[in-house]
Write a structure and sequence with these properties.
This protein is of the alpha/beta class. It folds into 2 domains: 169 residues, Rossmann fold (3-Layer(aba) Sandwich); 90 residues, Adenine-specific Methyltransferase, domain 2 (Orthogonal Bundle), CATH 1.10.1020. The protein is 40% helix and 17% strand. It has 11 helices and 8 strands. Strands 3-2-1-4-5-7-6-8 form an 8-stranded mixed β-sheet. Strand 4, helix 9 and strand 5 form a beta-alpha-beta unit. Helix 3 crosses helix 6 and helix 4 runs antiparallel to helix 7. The protein is globular. The structure holds S-adenosylmethionine (SAM).
Length: 301
């Protein structure tokens, strides 16, 4: 499966897990694809269901994609904007990055959010206690070279084309409300922050949040797919055994890069938890089912 990268990136982006997630979506799925934790949108944009409700508490992610969906942001507008700001960045260096960061923190313009996301350190998204974007400059004043602008423009164009034909709805709201909208034929894909990790203004997540998520998913009429971590070399995700154990748990190894050096590759066992048994999915085509068996190890906890 060719996975398209969306125009916005983040440290929690699930690009590498998309084929796995796609492989457990029933092939006859026709309902609403619901994401309470949309993030960069990479999962929904690649699954490309008929219809989707994509939500997040970070308004900047929602505003960016809502602006693409409404036609306020087009690939031509992005090219024009990045070309102009890229020239200024080359001339003024990091002072220009921080000027845009200050402007974004006052005016919250989606194009400035894209600029910061692509010129900030490691493509990270992080907000301070007051909700201000606080990622430092990537220290590359030549960041917006023509080839890089074209790459981003193509990513925007892909999203523009998708959102022209798919009536996807973007909403800034907390996960409880989003999950409650799910009906019988829908699938809720949940990718919540991990407890005690990456904590920032929009990403606080603790045991109570995890418990509420469980309570909501226990009573939903929809199918759900939940992404989380199972264990790494040092720790286990204790919520797998304490909270999630009554559901189906699938695991798979994934490598996280910490600090950008190959030698710092840390294997992490990812988990996918579902409230439906994918091995009993009659609608799965035989070939797809075979691929699934190769891809996944059913974890018995
Ligand atoms: C791990 S990221 C999702 C990543 C996404 N699947 C992707 O591949 O880009 C978690 C997301 O949850 C959002 N979030 C945090 N707390 C939330 C809450 N209470 N309700 C809804 N969204 C929340 C964050 O803003 C963040 O975008």
């Amino acid at each position: 499966m060719k996975v398209n990268i969306p125009p916005i990136k983040s440290q929690g982006i699930k690009t590498k897990l998309v084929p796995w997630i796609a492989s457990i979506v029933p092939s006859d799925f026709e309902g609403l694809w619901i994401e309470p934790f949309m993030g960069t949108g990479v999962v929904a944009f690649n699954i490309a269901p008929k219809n989707a409700l994509l939500c997040d508490t970070n308004p900047h992610l929602i505003n960016f994609y809502a602006a693409i969906a409404s036609g306020e942001i087009t690939s031509e507008i992005v090219r024009h904007y990045l070309t102009i700001e890229g020239v200024k960045l080359l001339k003024k260096g990091e002072a220009h990055y921080y000027e845009i960061r200050d402007r974004f923190n006052k005016e919250h313009q989606p194009l400035d959010f894209l600029f910061l996301n692509r010129a900030g350190f490691n493509g990270m998204i992080r907000f301070n206690k007051k909700g201000g974007f606080n990622i430092p400059f990537c220290r590359k004043p030549q960041r917006f070279a023509p080839a890089y602008i074209t790459k981003i423009v193509n990513q925007v164009e892909h999203t523009v084309k998708l959102l022209k034909v798919k009536p996807f709805n973007f909403k800034c709201q907390s996960y409880e409300n989003t999950i409650r909208t799910g009906n019988n034929n829908d699938i809720i894909y949940c990718d919540p922050p991990y407890v005690d990790r990456h904590v920032d203004y929009y990403n606080g997540w603790d045991e109570n949040h995890e418990q509420t998520l469980y309570d909501e998913l226990c009573v939903t009429k929809s199918k759900f797919i939940l992404s989380t971590w199972h264990h790494n070399d040092y720790r286990e995700n204790k919520y797998i055994n304490s909270i999630w154990k009554r559901f189906n748990i699938l695991t798979r190894e994934h490598f996280y890069h910490v600090g950008g050096h190959e030698k710092n590759r840390n294997p992490m066992i990812e988990a996918i938890i579902t409230n439906y048994d994918i091995s009993l999915n009659e609608h799965q085509k035989p070939k797809k089912r075979k691929q699934l068996m190769l891809l996944e190890t059913k974890h018995s906890t």
